[in-house]
Specification:
Elements (H helix, E strand, L loop, with lengths): L8 H15 L8 H38 L3 H25 L10 E7 L3 H22 L2 E9 L5 E9 L10 H5 L4 E7 L10 E11 L14 E6 L15 E6 L4 E5 L5 H27 L16 E6 L4 E4 L5 E2 L2 H5 L4 H21 L1
Parallel strand pairs: 4-9
Antiparallel strand pairs: 1-3, 1-5, 2-3, 4-5, 6-7, 7-8, 9-10, 10-11
Helix pairs in contact: 1-2, 2-3
């Protein structure tokens, strides 16, 4: 093992110590945005530093055992196990040193929209929304429905949900780290409730996942570039019509991005929710633009920018779920829709990690 292979960790150790000191300073926490950024970087470095310390111990043990093995048969017997432990620690450290998505520890705004297919597509969008809400509950995350437009039969034409982790010690367990692979077209195959002949139909719903903007200053929005319209909100079939103009539609004129919110009874609350979603969309659009300009930058094979890609099929007659990117297939669709999404998500994470490791090895 080359003692100098991991010298690149030394600057990270120094940065880790500096951040630790900064976070101990009460004055730093007066700026919540800055404190969150420091906390996110600290959590990201923690795993690397722990992996480095584990390797240091394993490396020291293996080195000392090798020196003593020539004289002591007991050490000679233990040497292969210690060398194996060192190799495993080194492999883990190399994996931890591969740059990860800096947004992994961020919370998200998840949107589900019914596609073509009328009521059946809206019902499926409702199934997906409930699946994510139950998955979030299993993970101990907090959820808030920012806006929802129900269909006549109880599905959703569209729904926006904010999903927030209570605390993040490991960025790999962040909400974005777990849900960023869900964006795309989700296809369903089943007999619709509106089908009298028992024929299986195929319809789809779209999912969009955006990292939430933590600090308003991250995304600068000129108020003069916004058009804000207010109107009366309404429920399915024209029911539950409000008697006040509480619904809000915000249009960002330079980009044409439109966000409408009507879930809250207060116009102020609807506008705040609309601005949260607008900031997340503007940030995502900016990052996509930068990524497109830097053609040499790594593009994940799993997390595609193409929101029109069909990523998964939910087949009800066979109780089967299939992920078309990772090849994952299981016959427990009922459990998945009840929030048991972990194995499906893990298949996407593992494929993305394999791609990142291969990319790092090719450099």
């Amino acid at each position: 093992m080359n003692d100098h292979e991991f010298n690149g960790v030394l600057p990270l150790l120094e940065e880790y110590g500096q951040i630790e000191q900064q976070l101990a300073d009460p004055a730093v926490h007066a700026d919540q945005g800055a404190a969150r950024r420091l906390g996110r970087r600290y959590a990201e470095l923690r795993g690397v530093i722990q992996a480095y310390r584990d390797w240091e111990v394993a490396h020291q043990d293996a080195t000392e055992a090798a020196e003593l093995a020539a004289e002591d048969p007991d050490f000679a017997q233990e040497l292969p196990n210690m060398q194996q432990a060192e190799r495993e620690a080194a492999d883990h450290l190399r994996t931890m040193l591969i740059p990860r998505d800096p947004d992994d520890s961020r919370d998200v705004i998840l949107e589900v929209k019914a596609g073509e297919g009328g009521e059946e597509s809206a019902l499926f969008a409702g199934d997906l929304a409930r699946m994510y809400l139950r998955f979030a509950e299993r993970k101990g995350w907090a959820t808030q429905i920012l806006d929802a437009t129900e269909s006549d039969l109880g599905g959703y034409k569209d729904i926006s949900v904010a999903i927030k982790a209570k605390s993040i010690d490991d960025p790999s367990q962040g909400v974005w780290a777990q849900l960023k692979y869900e964006g795309g077209v989700h296809r369903v195959q089943r007999v619709p409730v509106t089908e009298s002949q028992g024929r299986i139909h195929t319809s789809a719903a779209g999912v969009l996942v955006l990292p939430e903007v933590e600090d308003v200053g991250e995304v600068e929005i000129d108020p003069n570039e916004l058009r804000v319209d207010v109107y009366r909100s309404s429920g399915p079939g024209g029911q539950h019509v409000n008697t006040t103009d509480s619904a809000v539609r915000v249009t960002h004129l330079p980009t044409g991005i439109v966000v409408a919110m009507q879930n809250e009874k207060s116009q102020v609350q609807n506008r705040e929710a609309a601005m949260r979603v607008l900031r997340a969309r503007l940030r995502a659009a900016k990052l996509e633009e930068i990524e497109a300009q830097q053609s040499e930058a790594r593009r994940s094979q799993v997390r595609t920018v193409d929101r029109s890609e069909r990523i998964r099929t939910y087949n009800f007659p066979e109780n089967r779920i299939t992920d078309h990117r990772t090849g994952y297939k299981a016959y427990n669709l009922d459990h998945v829709l009840d929030g048991d999404l972990e194995p499906v998500v893990q298949s996407a994470i593992e494929l993305d990690e394999a791609e990142r490791i291969a990319h790092a090895g090719a450099q």
